[in-house]
Design brief:
Blueprint: H1 20-30, H2 34-41, H3 45-57, E1 64-68, H4 74-83, E2 88-93, H5 96-103, E3 117-121, E4 134-140, H6 149-159, E5 160-171, H7 177-196, H8 201-212, H9 217-227, E6 231-237, E7 242-248
Parallel strand pairs: 1-2, 1-4, 2-3, 4-5
Antiparallel strand pairs: 5-7, 6-7
Helix pairs in contact: 3-4, 7-8
The protein binds ligand LLAZDA3J and S-adenosylmethionine (SAM).
S-adenosylmethionine binds at residues 20, 23, 27, 69-71, 74-75, 93-95, 98, 123-125, 140-142, 145-146.
GO molecular function: 2-phytyl-1,4-naphthoquinone methyltransferase activity
EC number: 2.1.1.329
Function: Involved in the biosynthesis of phylloquinone (vitamin K1). Methyltransferase required for the conversion of 2-phytyl-1,4-beta-naphthoquinol to phylloquinol.
């Protein structure tokens, strides 16, 4: 069990534009129901999307890899199965409560490889790692939540080994109005009403504004290439509702 020292922040109601501290409080608040609501609201599909993201990362046996914005650890556990006992996985997040869920998930400690995961608390915009130290990085539903996305991509580039990949899974900010309409209808009429049963309507309403303020797949590719990545490709998945950027350093 990892121990963390954290300065907890008071909980805020989530205004449209929220600060780092308010986002931290949001993810602390949703941590008790986060996994179950993801399973329920995506009909379990998010697990398929996460497996795709990990495959695209290129993580292999013996690799040293990072799951950035790991939350409750879904991708970190999948990465540990890729890199095996000779590998190393760091699950990194700024939410103390999400990390407590990750480090105590009994359902996911059945495999020996799950024990290799190290859970670290910190800010994705200021990574405490040396240059070129990771063979692969995943970011599952994290980038959209970062207040400075270009800075995050620069940090990811800095700590990746040359020739290695980052795989960034998130909601897709679609160029198609019909896809955006479906996404927003689902959030308004399914996601938020279900979340309101747990007193988390405002936290899940945030999804809509965060997607509206996100980057399109093409913009994500351009940001990666401008940062210095040699290749960048954004794949639309889940019928265009989700997207995955794969960028090679
Ligand atoms: C795993 C998923 C979302 C994770 C997630 C990301 C965030 O940034 C949040 C911010 C605030 C609160 C919660 C989250 C959060 O859970 C994706 C699946 C779970 C979604 C909550 C479900 C969204 C519904 C889709 C718009 C449509 C799903 C269609 C499916 C094929 C039935
Ligand atoms: C929607 S959750 C995704 C969790 C997990 N990757 C998954 O796929 O389910 C977003 C996570 O990003 C974390 N996060 C948001 N901003 C962060 C930051 N600046 N530094 C570190 N973690 C951050 C939150 O605490 C939260 O656990």
């Amino acid at each position: 069990m990892a121990l963390f020292v954290s300065v907890s922040c008071s909980s805020f109601r989530v205004p449209i534009r929220c600060s780092n501290e308010q986002r931290q409080a949001l993810f602390n608040r949703i941590s008790p129901v986060y996994d179950n609501l993801n399973d329920l609201l995506s009909l379990g599909q998010h697990r398929i999307w996460k497996r795709m993201a990990v495959s695209w990362s290129g993580a292999n046996k013996g690799d040293h890899v990072l799951d950035l914005c790991c939350g409750s650890g879904d991708l970190a556990f999948l990465l540990s199965e890729k890199v095996g006992l000779q590998g190393k996985v760091i699950g990194y997040d700024f939410s103390e409560d999400q990390l407590l869920v990750a480090s105590s998930r009994k359902d996911l400690q059945l495999k020996a490889c799950h024990s290799i995961i190290e859970w670290l608390e910190g800010d994705a915009l200021d990574l405490p790692f040396p240059e070129t130290c990771f063979d692969a990085i995943t970011v599952g539903y994290g980038l959209r939540n970062l207040v400075d996305k270009p800075k995050a991509i620069k940090e990811i580039y800095r700590v990746l080994k040359p020739g290695s990949k980052v795989s960034i899974l998130d909601f897709n900010k679609s160029a198609l109005p019909v896809t955006t309409s479906i996404q927003e209808w689902m959030i308004d009429n399914v996601v938020v009403p279900v979340a309101s049963n747990y007193g988390l309507a405002k936290e899940y309403e945030y999804l809509k504004s965060s997607i509206r303020e996100f980057l399109t797949g093409r913009e994500l590719e351009m940001l990666a290439l401008e940062t210095g990545f040699s290749r960048a490709k954004h794949y639309e998945i889940g019928g265009g509702l989700m997207g995955n950027l794969v960028a090679t350093r």
